[in-house]
Structure formats: structure tokens, C-alpha cells
User: Fold these one by one.
Assistant:
Number 1:
Amino acid sequence: MRTSRLQLLAAAGVAVASLALTACQDGTGTRDEGASASQPGASTPSDASSQAPEESASGSGGNASTANGSTGSGGDTAGSGESGSGSGGGGKGPSAGKGSAPGGSDDAPATFNPCNGSNTSVSAAPVSRPVNHMLITVKNTGSKNCDLTYYPVLRFDEMQWVPQPVEESKPQAVVTLAPGESAYAGVLLSAADGSGSGGATGKKLAVGFQGRTPNSDGGPAAIPSLPAAGVYYDSSLTVTYWQSSADDALTY
């Protein structure tokens, strides 16, 4: 009897195994394969999502670099550069005004107001002594002080060159004119011994003014009247720095 029961149980186990095998071959088995196939599919988004943060991090890193490095840091650098330039300009302005004041003096006015054709009257007249000289006179016609820096920039008619200054005439400080006061510059028109070249007769004269730094624009030029016959000049044409007295201007 015991042996028969064991045989029956064994037969029943074989039957169950056969049913299970049959189930694996029908629609149920297909569903299992589908579920199994869905697992790699689920892992793919997981892999993609695991890469996405890296790409995102790289992207955000690029953006952060662009924002901070180019725009942020660059902007800050540019800002500080402009600020530095501004402060540098501010630092250079006064020092340039003082250091480059005629004679290298530190007496340049703290508040600079250039004399020019808009706040002065200007005359230019040949003188008898010294020979071949002309005197330029500038009078402050404004309501406040104005400053004459360096020397007048002269141009006869369409002259293509600029007369050089007499360096020995450089004063110790900028010439400042109160309202109604005058300053002067002497002009050597031509060589007394005839050694100059390229002689011409000027019919029109423009007197230019310089600003705080050499060769900078000091404002509108003046056009003083000349004698009807004009003024003869040659390659010896030179001009003094601005002087406080006519005698000093005609010394050179």
C-alpha cells in the first residue's frame, strides 16, 4: 500500500509538471516573456535618466561657465576694467594736468576752464621790434577765469604743417586770466638772415587753443584780423608759449 501511494504521488507530480510545461507554451507563458522583456525596457530609461543628469550637469556647467565666466566674471572684469579705467583716467587727468603743465609745474589749476575763441577776443599784429615778429594778444571776455595751456596752434590759410614752439619760452605754470585780463604769445615769422625756405604770404590766420594735455582740443579757434597786405612767413615760423606779459612774449 505504501508503495502504491508513492507511485500515485509520483504520477501526480509528473502530471503537474506536464501541466506547468503546457502552461509555459500557451498565452500565459507569452505574458511571462512579455513581463521579462519589459524589464530591460524599464532599465533603458533608467540608464537614460542616469545619463541625463550628466548631460544636464555638463550643460548647466557650460551655462554656469558662460554665465559666471563670460557674462558674470567677464562682466565683472569688464566692469572693474571700466572702473579701473575710470579711476585710472581720473588719476591720470589731474596728474597729467599738473605734470604736463608748462614747465612741468604742479601749479595747474584744480578746476580747469580753457580759454578759447568762445570766451576771449584775439588780435594778431606785426611789431617793429624785434624784426619779423608778430604779437598775439588774448583777452578774457568771459565772466570767470580761463586758462591758457602750452602755446597757440597757428595756421595760415591752408597751411599743412604746425609751427613749433620755442621751448625756452616755457613758463613755470599755466597762465590763468581773470575776466578782462590779457596774455600774449610772440611769433617769429621769418628768418632775419633769409635762411628760411618756402616763403608765403598769409591772408588768414587761425589761432587754436590746447586743453589740459598737450595737443588736446581746448575749444573753438579764433580768427583774428590780419593786415590787408597779409603777413609774410617762411619755414622759420615759430611761436612762444603763452606769457603773462607782451615783453616776455617778444623776448624770443
Note: The first helix runs from residue 2 to 25.
Number 2:
Amino acid sequence: MAHESVDEPIKDTAEEWRVTASETPFTGNKTGVRTDTVVMPDGSTAKRDYQTHPGSVAVLALDEQDRVLVLNQYRHPVRQRLWEIPAGLLDVPGENPLRAAQRELYEEAHVKAEDWRVLTDVYTTPGGCDEAVRIFLARGLSDVEGERFAVEHEELDMEVARIPLALLARGVLKGELHNNCLVVGVLSAMAALAGDGLEALRPADAPWPARPFEA
């Protein structure tokens, strides 16, 4: 396979190979498993198993001291306590991702933000799951008055902290921080700061083809 040198920007494109059969052997509370029979380019067929997911939002909340609001909680599938940024599922199909992100920041950290922008959009594991995540940058942080949201399960043991962005970036590159949204969010913010700046990020209501929403 020849390697082509490309000097222009590249981007992902929509494409859908023909599916001749589809079944859902498992449906859980929020996610499921689907098996599709897909027609390959040579005309043969192959089965593809993947997890179906409603989509998620995450928030890189950056304060005036360039500290990021992070959470520490136990994640059973990987048997570790991970440092993460606030995140949550899109519970309702077509839900506005900005409102979902604002809800997660409030529920998990009891914080609100005045300035919201889209930091980046990612597929977490496109080889085996259709989960799409929109990561927002939130600034102009302030504590929310009133009672805190009632937490349960893993969140009962959750720790909240504010850590300098540069310190988190070093932790990512040293292999000490592993949460997908934290890694992508922190490195994206560092890239934005080193490039065109945070003001050049997309607006909070930018289109999201992976999970279309209503304003």
C-alpha cells in the first residue's frame, strides 16, 4: 500500500455499506448489542458485532486560574479509580447536547458556566461501539446555590478537585490518566491554546451530525 502525502486538511466522511440482516441479541437499560451482516467491497458478507449507545456529552470546565474541574470515581469494567471530567448520557433521543452538558456539570459538580463552546467531537471506540461524545469547553464558572443533586452508586464515593490544565496534560503523556474524555478534552484544549485560541472554537450550538438535535 503506497503512502500518499497530503498537504491539505483531511476530514471524516459519511458512508454506509449495505446491511442485509440485523439482529439485537442483547438490549440493556441504556445500551445494547447489535449484529449486522454487512456487504464487503468484494461482494462477500461479514458479521459485525457492536455495542449500540445513545451518545454522551462531557465538559472540560476551565476556571480563571486555568484549572480543570475533575472527578475521581471507581469504574468497575477496568477495575480502577479514574480521574474524569463531568460527563453523562444523552438520555432522550434528539436531546440538545448543550442542555445535557449543563445538567451534568450541575449534577456532578454543582457548578454552572457562563461561556460554552464545542471543544471536540469524538467516537470513543468506533471499531466496536457507535458511541459519539461531544466535549464542551465551559468557562466563567460559579457555584450553584441551593441543595445538591442526590447521587447514588459510584457517585456516592466521588471526589471533586480542580487541577491545572498543564499538570493534567503531563499526567496524560506519562500514562497516569486514562479516561477517554479527559485525555481528549485536555489535549484538545492545549492544542487550541497553542493554535488559534479558545475564542476560535466552534459555538456551543454547532451542528453534530453524529447525534442530530433540535435547538
Note: Residues 36 and 48 are 5 Å apart (CA to CA).
